Amino acid sequence: MAEIPGLPPPRPIPLKERAALVFVARARLDVEDGAFVAVDAEGVRIVIPVGGLACLLLEPGTRVSHAAAALAARAGTLLVWVGEGAVRLYSAGRPGGARADKLLWQARIALDDAARLRVVRKMYALRFGEAAPQRRSIDQLRGIEGVRVRESYALLARQHGVAWRRRAYDVADWEAGDLPNRCLSAATACLHGLTEAAVLAAGYSPAIGFLHTGKPLSFVYDIADLWKLETVVPEAFRIAGQAAKGRLDMAPERAVRLACRDAFRRTKLLERIIPGIEEVLAAGELPRPEPPPEAAGPAFADPEEGP
Q1: Is 305 a member of any domain?
Q2: Cβ pair 215, 209 in contact under 8 A
Q3: 176 and 134, same structural domain?
Q4: Predicted confidence (pLDDT) per residue in 34-66, tens digit
Q5: What is the tens place of the pLDDT at every residue in 227-254?
Q6: Which of 31, 57, 92 is the endpoint of a domain?
Q7: What gap in Å lies between CA 203 and CA 247, rounded to an integer?
């Protein structure tokens, strides 16, 4: 994605054609000869094709140069700073192209009680494959979803021979969590990073949620939950079961990340997230605003599909 003098800047790769994400730990990210590189403590340099990635998850011990951050922004690749084992998400960059028209549409729907409820009901239907119960408030639907998710966790734990009590972890002490909770935390961090990249790339606000509210990533959690039980949760319990039986040759968290990467590719998740956002917000039944004539185009727009 480096610029060559005398030639126009390269066009960013559409999000749906990118690899999902890469974790980087204990390395210095920089730009050398126009390429994005990671340099470890031994001085070993690894070239990272940043323009072909949706997201880089940066664990403790990672330093990022100004040139590297600028190149990632031009390439439309999200940089996300996470905790050890990705149990916490501290901060994120911006892949660019946030459009005020889409953000205002999202905010308008969130501020309209009836439209917000229609969006929450649509998310329920997409997540569980059936219509949400009638005459239920958002709080009631949130409670129903919580029960169904806990039941799904318990079922997957039984299927994979995992001792499961409940979802619990200490964000300040990664090692204090039990094995299945650590696997779930690592898996959801992968999904949240990928989803945030898609939300920002499409021009929406990660903070303006519908079912989740009051957090910097409320909308990310809303959208990620649509595919959570389909993609990362089964992988987390599968890896936890293998680890409990002594069948892993690597740390469980790393095995989870690799499994999530494969699940994202297998399910073609990057192709589905942005259309899924549009489908969910359209359920609010409020008109989509037209962008003003002077509005900047998206940083990296997916081409329109042919007939």
Answers
A1: no
A2: yes
A3: yes
A4: 888 999 888 889 999 888 888 888 888 899 999
A5: 999 999 999 999 999 999 999 999 998 8
A6: 92
A7: 43
Give the SS3 label for residue 78: strand
Reading phi first (left if > 0) and then psi (alpha if -120 to 50, else beta), residue 44 is in: beta
d(CA 190, CA 137): 31
Determine, yes or no, domain membership for 234.
yes
pLDDT averaged over every residue in the chain: 85
Instruction: Determine contact, residues 54/78, Cβ cutoff 8 Å.
Output: yes
CA atoms within 13 A on the CB side of 289: 15
Q: pTM surpassing 0.90?
A: no
Output DSSP code: residue 298.
P
Same domain, 104 and 77: no
- pLDDT, tens digit, 9 for 90 and up, residues 253-288: 889 988 998 999 899 898 899 899 999 999 999 998
> Residue 241: which domain range?
100-282
On whether both 139 and 265 belong to a single domain, the answer is yes
258 in any annotated domain: yes
Amino acid identity, position 94: R
DSSP string, 116-178: HHHHHHHHHHHHHSSPPPSS--HHHHHHHHHHHHHHHHHHHHHHTT--------BTTBGGGS-
* β-bridge partners, 38: 29, 46
As given in the structure block, the two tokens for residue 236 are 């987390």
Q: What is the structure's pLDDT at 306?
A: 46
The better pLDDT of the pair 242, 22 is held by 242
Q: Is residue 211 part of a domain?
A: yes
Q: How many CB atoms lie within 10 A of CB 176?
A: 12
Percent of residues, the chain, with pLDDT higher than 90: 50
On whether both 106 and 216 belong to a single domain, the answer is yes
